[in-house]
Every structure is written in structure tokens, then in C-alpha cells.
Amino acid sequence: MCGIVGYVGGGAPGARAEGVVMGGLARLEYRGYDSAGIAVVTADDAAVAMRKKAGKLVNLAKELAERPIDHGTAAIGHTRWATHGAPTDANAHPHLAAGGRIAIIHNGIIENFSALRAELEAEGIEFLSETDTEATGHLLAREVETGASLAEAMRTITRRLEGAFTLLAVDAREPRTVVGARRNSPLVVGLGEGENFLGSDVVAFIEHTRTALELEQDEVVEITPEGVTITDRSGHVVEREPYTVDWDASAAQKGGFATFMEKEIHDQPEAVADTLRGRIDEHGKLHLDEGLVHEALLASVDKIIIVACGTASYAGLVGRYAIEHWCRIPVEVELAHEFRYRDPVVNVRTLVVAISQSGETMDTIMAVRHAQRQGAPVIAIVNAQGSTIAREADAVLYTRAGPEIAVASTKAFLAQITATFLLGIYLAELRGNKFPDEIEALLSQLDEIPAKIQRVIDTSEGIREVARSMADERTVLFLGRHVGFPVALEGALKLKELAYIHAEGFAAGELKHGPIALVEPGQPVFIVLPSPRGRESLHAKVISNVQEVRARGARTFVIAEEGDTEAANHAEQVFYVPNAPVLMTPLLQVVPLQIFALELAAAKGYDVDQPRNLAKSVTVE
Ligand code: F6R
């Protein structure tokens, strides 16, 4: 939440600062779009130049066009997802201190800000915003005014802060420096030639460099045109190896599609194929990407707990069916924010699997730490390279979905499901639950999935048409059973997020226990129909559920497998997806539901890439 960019580039033309930061903010806007702001330092001014505006980045761009800033050597920029204080101009970042000498931006929550504010106000400092951030600027000012360098001042003040933060600051007296610090919020450094970058995410600077390094907890970084210095909490210089980001700027662009979400839906065959690619060695053995959880330990775990939030948790729900079926290990799936507050029974024989696209979801980070404190090994299924969860977990299985920019998750979801399957296959092999030929069969079935997803996308006109006709609906229900249940949950979540329509996903069998009371004549109900080639009784039971809602006047829209001749008898319209092994069907069935939500939201004229009130990386608890 909140996007942060920093740039420093010394000499002539030295003119890139504003442009680089605005470009970075445009790519980070998915992290929050309540307001945006920029502060630029020029070599010869006593104060930084600042512009900030409530609303989307376009408002800031307009402001800059009307009131241009002189070209600068260093700049910081921020796009906000509001926590403390309404989304107004005054609460927008940056915040100034020391009479305009210092500017600071922040992502996170300073939990002890009230006490800090009271202390500073008692000294006569006047606050101009309601934010928790402004106090950090005044603390910094107090230090630099006693002669400390900006980096020294940052190290001093972060010791006093509680909560989560990424802070970037500039000082007009140090025009060739940007200083950053982080705790529980992300900050990545981009290494350039004669210029260096900071960002909440590598997309902030991917256009300029693919060489990056991560900051660890409680480190302070100082970037100048010539170099990068990282220091730990006590001020000792830390050496850090850079890495190369394995995708380039084109992956973070719309590629000819009208929206990122449309593009990312079209990226899904590749996201699944890339997640599968190269994971199996010449001996047929699966490999995790980073770190190691001892195989003997994995062979001996007696329970798996998957922790995740939102869409990622639904990927975990799908994974549960597969892992339990293939490995015969009990699997629980828990919302990360509930997990640690219920005193879960976790120990060294519990494998905790954290699923996260961003790798920065605070709820999931906290669940990982809680599990590790109880001695549990943690494997992360993460999309963002080098993110906090990837770094803190004991091993990582990266989903290779590429950058997901649209706020609502699509391709990451499919890649996450694929990764849980890989993990299940890996464990089944390790624990001797499957013969090598069975493993091979599963892998080749998975290999066929990307082409089938492509077919679903290519034949989506029918569902798009239905979506356009539903712009005035007030409620849509989604039913599913077995692996179709998480698909129903995801279908409902996508519709809520994008089209702001009330939507509920139910386990089809649960309907008669209460929710059926919601069904009125004309109520649209989407049903994810299990394959008739799976458990016959399951298909028949869901058909009965369809009939129950139809009998009460519902309009039924069914996602069914090609060749399911029964489906059409029970639906106003059927959307067919190709055959796949039962456990893999969610990878196909969810696609029409994503497209439905996208198209319906677009028909209502909503911004599908940046739905209201949301942000992509939920870095607060
Ligand atoms: C829904 C969505 C969210 C995320 C959730 C977890 O479209 O994107 O529900 O899935 O906030 O985010 P990550 O995967 O980054 O941990």
C-alpha cells in the first residue's frame, strides 16, 4: 500500500529526476491512488520544491504542468492509500519539515505517532496534516538541525518508531542524496550508471535498470549518483549482492490491451506455463527455487497449514484438495490474519505454506513469523522476487506470473494454484505416495492446461455478452462444490471488487442450509458444475442444486465441461470449458468468471485496473 519512488542522478543534464519519479509513480499507482506527490531537490535551492494533489496521479501531472518545478538532481514521489487522514491535498505526501528543507514520504503505519506528535507539538511544532507520517519529518528535521547528516538522522529517528514503515527523505542541503529506511514494508534499490533508484517494487525503475538489491529489516540506505550505502541498525555498513530482475519493462506495460486486467487475463496461459517450466530435473525430480527445507523434515511433516489472504487463500483452498488427495496429509487453509490470533497448533512437524502474489501482505508476513517462532518450516509461494515473504521463508517456490499490475488478481491466482500442485507433486514423490509414472502423468496433464486456458479466453464472447446485459443487477450468487467451491468464491470476489455489485460465493451443498432464502425470481446464479467424468454423484448433486434455485425463479448460468450434455437442460446459458482432470478444472473454470467481472465493470464505466478503496499490496494489518 502506497507506492514510493526515489531517484538521484548527479550531473548534467541532471534533468531526469522529476520524469523518472513521475514514470515510477505511474507504474506504482496500483499500490494506492488516493493522492500523489513529488519533492524535487535542485543543486542550488535552500528548500525542496514540492507538488501534491488529492486523487489520482493525473491530478498531480496537471498540477506540475500548471506549476512546473525546476529540474533537479534528486527526487522522491509517493502515491497514497490513505490510512491516517482523509485523502486530501494536505494529507498527501511528501510532508515538509525544517522550513521546507526536508521532505519525507512514507508507506506503512507509525503506531506510536500520537505520542510523537504530542511531544513535537509541545516543542511548538505546528502540524499541517492529520497523517502519522508528518511526525517523522519533524523528528528528522530536529536531527539534521543539530548537524547530523540525513542518513545519520534517519538511523536515529527510526529507533524511535513503532509499526511499519518505508521512509524516503531528501534534504535541500544534500542535493545529491536520497535516504531510505524500512521496517515491515518493502523497499528495493535499483542500480544504474551514474544514477540510482529506490522503489516499493522493482516496477518503479524497471524501465531504467534491471539490477536490484533488497533492503533487510531495519536497514538504512543512502543513494547518491555514485553509489549505494546500506547500514544496519547500529550504523555498520552492510554488503549486499545485487540480482537481476528476470523480466523487463515490456512485461509491465499493457501490450496493446485497453487495461492491465484484460492483458493479465490474456497472460494466463503463459503464467501457468512459466510456473511449470524448468521445475523438473532430468531425474524427474522437482526443485524449489530458493532456500532449503530439509527433505527428511518434509517427509516427516504430519500437517500442512496454508496461510494467505483473499484470492491467494482461494488458490490455497484449491491446493488443499490436490495435496490431500495426492499426499494423504491433512491440509488446513487459514486466512493469515486469523491464523496467529487463534493460538494455532503448529510445531516442527507442521509445514506452513504462505501464498502471496506481492510477498508483502502484512497479514501473511505476520503469520509466517508466528509459524517460524513455533519451529514450523515455511515454504513461500510468491510472485514478487526478493519480497519480504520470499526472503523470510525457509524455501520459496516462485510463481512466474510476471508483474501483476491490475489491482484485482488474475494471472497470479492461476499461477498460485499451479504452484500448489507442483508442491503437492513434490511432496507425493518425496513421501512415496505416487509412483514415478503417476507423477509423470500428472505433470503431462498440467502441461496441457495452458493451451486449454487459451481456448477459454478465445471463446469468451458469450460470457462477455451476458456480462454487458447485467450492468443493472444488484446481487449475483455463485455456487460450486469440491474444487468448484473456491472458484465460486473467487468469481464472487472479482465481481465485488471490480463492479461493486453484491456477490456471494457458496458451497452448493450449503445453499439449503440458509442462503437459498436469498433467491427471488430473476436472481442471477452462476454455477460451477463439476465434471461428469469425476465423481458421478457430485455432478448429479450440483445439478439438483441448480434445479432448486431454478424452481424458485433464479436465472442460472452454468460453467460446464465440454461434452456435458446434461448442463444445457438446467441453464439459461452454459459456458463450456475444455476437459481437464477434476483437480485441475479450477484453472479453466475461473477464467470465464474473471472475464464476466471485467466486462461487467467495464460496461458500468468503472476503472477495472484501480477499483475504488483497494490497493494491490496490503502492507498494513
Ligand atoms: C483480489 C486480490 C486480493 C489479494 C490479497 C492477497 O483480487 O488481489 O484478495 O489476493 O490481498 O495479496 P497477496 O497475494 O499479494 O498476498
CATH architecture of the largest domain: 4-Layer Sandwich
Uncertain segments of ≥5 residues (pLDDT<50)? none
The number of E-state strands comes to: 26
Return the structural class.
alpha/beta
CATH topology of the largest domain: Glutamine Phosphoribosylpyrophosphate, subunit 1, domain 1
Largest β-sheet summary: 8 strands, antiparallel
Biggest sheet, strands in spatial order? 3-2-4-1-10-9-11-15
How many domains would you count in the coordinates? 3
Distinct small molecules bound, one entry per kind: fructose -6-phosphate
Q: What is the level 1 CATH name of the largest domain?
A: Alpha Beta
Going by CATH, the homologous superfamily of the largest domain would be Aminohydrolase, N-terminal nucleophile (Ntn) domain
Helix content: 25-40%
The span between the termini is 11 Å
- pLDDT averaged over residues: 92
| Computed Rg | 25 Å
Task: Outline the structure in words.
The protein has 621 residues and is an alpha/beta fold. The protein has three domains: 3-250, 4-Layer Sandwich (Glutamine Phosphoribosylpyrophosphate, subunit 1, domain 1), CATH 3.60.20.10; 278-447, Rossmann fold (3-Layer(aba) Sandwich); 458-603, Rossmann fold, CATH 3.40.50. The protein is 35% helix and 22% strand. It is built from 19 helices and 26 strands. The strands form four sheets. Strands 3-2-4-1-10-9-11-15 form an eight-stranded antiparallel sheet, with helices on one face. Strands 5-6-7-8-12-13-14 form a seven-stranded antiparallel sheet. A hairpin with a 4-residue loop joins strand 5 (95-97) and strand 6 (102-110). Helix 7 packs antiparallel against helix 15 (449-458), helix 9 runs antiparallel to helix 17 (484-499) and helix 15 (449-458) packs parallel to helix 19 (586-603). The longest helix has 20 residues, at 411-430. It is globular, with a radius of gyration of 25 Å. It starts with a strand and ends in an 18-residue tail after the last helix. The mean pLDDT is 92. The structure holds fructose -6-phosphate (F6R). Residues 309-312, 356-358, 361, 364, 408-409, 493, 497, 617-618 line the site of fructose -6-phosphate (F6R).
